[in-house]
Amino acid sequence: MKKLASALMSVLLAAVCSIGHASSNPDPETLKVALLPDENASTVIKNNKPLEIYLEKELGKKIELVVTTDYSSMIEAMRHGRIDMAYFGPLSYVLAKQKSDIEPFAAMKQKGSTTYQSVLIANTGAGIAKISDIVNKNVAYGDKASTSSHLIPKSILAENGLKAGENYREHFVGAHDAVAMAVQNGHAQAGGLSKPIFESLVQRGLVDPNKVKVLAESKPYPQYPWTMRSNLKPELKEKIRAAFLNLKDPEVLKPFKADGFGPISDKDYDVVRSLGTLLKLDLSKF
């Protein structure tokens, strides 16, 4: 029995050492690249096959695309060194930064800008003409760690004196498109999500503007950042940064609905940290 326990301990120690070695490897042969779990994992990976091919060519390494089950598991994967690069939302980046030694290096550009907006939407038949009409209504948010489908729209309501649990009922439905569908179907009378995603849903005919209207738009916030482990080899980090900042291939950019990527730094996300303060949220509990 003692020999068996000793053997098991040896295996566990070997596994721990192996994980630690993998997470600290400054120049791995395969780069694990995580993408946001905003849609079905197989769909996200399929749509980003051009990105995989592009990065393998530019970096001279094998690329493994990863899609976790949700934002929290993505943050934990980065924390434990299971991924080398990740495409986070602004809030999920701030949360990951608290737990991991990572750095943002590029943000999506749309119409030449590395900022974007969130929208507060309402069901047209719910009798909501202004934000104050949301009192006692159901409000749909996406993921708790989402910036544009939780933090920003919640801050808009807070600035108008409406607090979750006191003035309205909040429901987390997971993804941006689920928010729009919940509002359109009347399961929630209002909701919040990314403006570009909402506009895309309307353009694709998935959201009927006769059933769903935009109640308010937020001010601009920094776009979703690409991040990498800070302990990667400096030469590799420069190649990664250049690969994104020089990216112009429309097939690679198509899934991001972007016209390119621009430089970004950690301090650009202080505005997101301020939102947490405004809402009196303990971000460490996300």
From TrEMBL:
Coiled-coil residues: none
A GO biological-process term: transmembrane transport
UniProt keywords, alphabetically: Signal
Alphabetized InterPro entries for the sequence: PhnD
Ligase found in the keyword field: no
One CC-aspect GO term: ATP-binding cassette (ABC) transporter complex
Signal peptide extent: 1-22
Keyword hit for Signal: yes
Family indicated by similarity: Belongs to the phosphate/phosphite/phosphonate binding protein family.
Protein name, as recorded: Phosphate-import protein phnD
Organism of provenance: Ralstonia mannitolilytica
Gene responsible for this protein: ptxB
